[in-house]
Structure formats: structure tokens, C-alpha cells
Amino acid sequence: KLVKSISPSLNIIAAMDHRRSSIVLLILSILSPATLSMRYELLSGHTKCISEEIHANAMSVGKYSIVNPNEDHPLPDSHKITVRVTSPQGTAYHEADGVSTGQFSLTAVETGDYITCISAVDHKPETMMTIDFDWRSGIHTKDWSNVAKKSQVEMMEFEVKKLFDTVTSIHDEMFYLRDREEEMQELNRATNTKMAWFSFLSLGVCLSVAGLQFWHLKTFFQKKKLI
């Protein structure tokens, strides 16, 4: 009896710890730098695409540039790229052709994976170039150090504003996760309903086949005058 009385309490404590851990991980994931900054090599005539999940109404900015292989000389004519940024539905938010550097900004209309494709202009002989790419979304699109310098606000006001934006981001993220959870629950309910109908249909088919077999055997034995 003592063991039985302790087990529910342990389960409740474990559930509370799991919920607290989930909230802490959520806050840490938002407070951590949600930026995509990378440097990679791209061969002329080839394309590399990068996706980033952005929530609806969130701001996103990005910049790209080709690294000059020889800083003492101008960038070679072969070092040109074509950049295209599209929404989950394929809408183009940014297009640049035959450039060596550039930037883009967008406000997401819908939640989903936004894709940036960078293509190196075809060149003979083939040329390897290095691309610098930086992509920021949400609260991380704001350069708070520049904001503080431009507005000359006091340190306390600056920190409060920064925390307010962080809390707003956490609030939006939690509502987004709740909506996703409701969608998953609705999907589970629909799947369970379909499986229940499928089970009843399977049972009906099995009973029908069994009935047909019984009728066939009965007819067969009657013809043979065995019954």
C-alpha cells in the first residue's frame, strides 16, 4: 500500500519536471542566437539552397557576399551569383542576378520554410568561390547595440525594451506551439476515427466472407445429400 501511494506522487513530480524542462528549453531556444551565419564553397554552374522556418508576421533579414580570393585585386568577373528567396508557396521575395554582394528583408505572410537559393554563374573553366551568408529572423533581426547608440536611451530603458521584445517573442512562440499541438490532436482524432471505420469495415468483410463460405458448404453438402 505504501508503494502504491508513493507511485502517483512520483508520477506527478516527474510530469511537473518534464513540463518545467520543456519551458526552460523553449526559453533557451528563443534567447539563444537564432541566426544562420555560414561560409561555404560553391562551384560555378551549381546551386545551393538553404531553408529557414519563419513564423507568420515575423521579420527576416539576410545578406550575402562573395569572398575576394585576392584582396589586393578587384573581384574577378567570373565571381558572380544569382540569388532567389521564396516563400513556402513559391512566391519570390527577393531576386538578384549576376551580383557579388547584396541583402534582403521580408515580413513573413505565412508560417513555413522560406528558401534562399544561391547559384554561381556558369563559367569555363569552372571556378570555385566562397560565399558568406548571414540570415536572421524574429527578434534577432534587431541590432540592439545600434539602436542604443542612435536613440541615446539610458541603460535601464534599453534593457527593459530588449526584455519586452524577448517576452513577446516567447509569447508568440508558445501560441504557435499550442496551435501546432491542436493540429496534431485533430489529426490524431481523425486518424483514430478512420481506423475505427476501417476496423468495422474489415469485420464486416470477414463476416460476409464467412457467411458466403458457410452458404457454399451447406449448398455443396445438400447437393451431395450428406445433410
Please explain how this structure is put together:
With about 230 residues, the protein is an alpha+beta fold. The protein is built from three helices and eight strands. A four-stranded antiparallel sheet has the order 1-8-3-6, with no helix packed on it. Helix 1 crosses helix 3. The longest helix has about 70 residues. The chain is elongated. The N and C termini lie far apart (about 60 Å). The N terminus is likely disordered. It comes from Brassica napus. It holds the Pfam family EMP24_GP25L. This is GOLD domain-containing protein. Belongs to the EMP24/GP25L family. Keywords: Coiled coil, Membrane, Signal, Transmembrane, Transmembrane helix.
Largest sheet: 4 strands, antiparallel
Mean pLDDT: 77
* Tally of DSSP β-strands: 8
Please report the distance between the alpha carbons of the first and last residues. 62 Å
Strand order of the largest sheet: 1-8-3-6
Structural class: alpha+beta
- SSE sequence, one letter per element: HEEEEEEEEHH
Content of β-strand: 25-35%
Number of helices: 3
Specify Rg, calculated over alpha carbons.
31 Å
Shape by Cα distribution:
elongated
Low-confidence spans = 1-33
- Helix content class: 40-55%
Note the main attributes of this structure.
227 residues, single chain, alpha+beta, transmembrane, four-stranded antiparallel β-sheet, disordered N terminus
In summary, what is this structure?
The protein has three helices and eight strands. With 227 residues, the protein is an alpha+beta fold.
Helix and strand arrangement:
Layout: H1 2-31, E1 35-43, E2 47-54, E3 59-66, E4 81-86, E5 92-99, E6 101-107, E7 112-120, E8 128-137, H2 144-151, H3 155-223
Antiparallel strand pairs: 1-8, 2-7, 3-6, 3-8, 4-5, 4-7
Helix pairs in contact: 1-3
Main location: membrane
Subcellular location: Membrane
Pfam families: EMP24_GP25L
